[in-house]
Each structure stands twice: as C-alpha cells, then as structure tokens.
Amino acid sequence: MKKLFAVGLIGISVGMAWGQATNYQTVTLFVYSFTKFVQWPEEVNTGDFEIVVLGNSPVFAELKTMSEKKKVGSRAIQLSKIAGPSEFKKGHILYVSTEWLSKYSEVAGKVGDLPTLIITEHATGTNKGDINFIHKDGKLAFEINSPNLTKHRLKASAELVRFAVTN
C-alpha cells in the first residue's frame, strides 16, 4: 500500500507542469510524501513532527492547511515560519525559500549536522539541500543530495530515490 501511494502521488505530481508559477499544493504533497519516505534517527522520533519554513514562500499557507488535517504517523505536524537562519533551533524539515538560496551556506552552517531534512524551493548551483525542487522539461521534479542526507543522519527509501531526478 505504501509503495502504491508513493508511485501514485509522486508519479502524478512529477507529471504536473511547473509553468509560470509553482503549484504550491503540489509542492506540499511532495513535502508530505517525503515525511513517509525519509527515515530520521530514533532520538528525534517523539513529540510533534516539526516543519520550519525559512523566508517568505506561498508554500507556508499550503503547509498550514495540510498540517491541520494530516499527521506524520501518529504525530501532529507543528509548522513554523522564521525570517532568518539565526532563528532556527530545531526541526525535522527546514524548507528554504528561494529568497535564501543565495545565502545557503549560512543556512547549512546553522543546521550543521542536526537530523534535519533541508528542502530547497529551487536548486541552484552548489546551493543545494538534502532534497531540491528543480525544473525538468518544464515540470516540477526533485533531486536528492545523498551526501547531505548522510551528513544529517537521514535515509531516503529506495522508492523515493527511484523517483528522484538524476543529473
């Protein structure tokens, strides 16, 4: 069932056009799917599941709607928004908006080796998190940065890796 869910959701999502503006409902579906196909270390698998959005992005409103209806397993989703990396204390996911990509090294330095999945809104050059949304043939897709995942002590499932774009 889990595998069927992954194939259906990711397959449909990848097929949706990126177009002139990002479809943040689709981005939110991806982010929620990542919670099911990324494994965090045991020591952070208690309490609420925390998603932090860095900067201004329309994804925040979509994630808020999703977080009020969904759970990660039996855990409630706690969503917060921060204006800068200095405000980041902890979180299972840190979603980095486009406005912070030029200062990605500051963001990565603040996260360090915490078990936090860094997702970038749009990958550019070397400013890449653990999972990065990209444009591929005019469609929304994502890539996985395996060395970063390892640094953050996270493991992506084989299903997730299979659906990632490779360069």
Instruction: Report the radius of gyration as a whole number of Å.
Output: 15 Å
Give a quick account of the main beta sheet: strands, pairing sense, barrel closure.
7 strands, mixed
The total beta strand count reads 9
Rounded to the nearest angstrom, the distance between the terminal CA atoms is: 29 Å
The helical percent reads 25-40%
- Quickly give the structural class: alpha/beta
Number of helices: 6
Strand content: 15-25%
Number of domain units: 1
Contiguous uncertain segments of 5+ residues? 4-20
CATH architecture grouping: 3-Layer(aba) Sandwich
Order of helices and strands: HHEEHEEEHEEEHEH
Main-sheet strand order equals 3-4-2-5-6-7-8
CATH topology: Rossmann fold
pLDDT averaged over residues: 87
CATH classification class: Alpha Beta
Describe what this molecule looks like in 3D.
By secondary structure, this protein is an alpha/beta fold. The chain has one domain: Rossmann fold, CATH 3.40.50. The protein contains six helices and nine strands. It has helices spanning 2-15, 24-37, 59-69, 104-111, 146-151, 158-163, and strands spanning 38-39, 49-54, 71-72, 75-82, 93-96, 117-120, 131-136, 139-144, 155-156. It has a seven-stranded mixed β-sheet with strand order 3-4-2-5-6-7-8, with helices on both faces. The chain has a two-stranded antiparallel ribbon with strand order 1-9. A hairpin with a 2-residue loop joins strand 7 and strand 8. Helix 1 packs antiparallel against helix 2 and helix 2 packs across helix 3. The radius of gyration is 15 Å and the shape is globular. The termini are far apart.
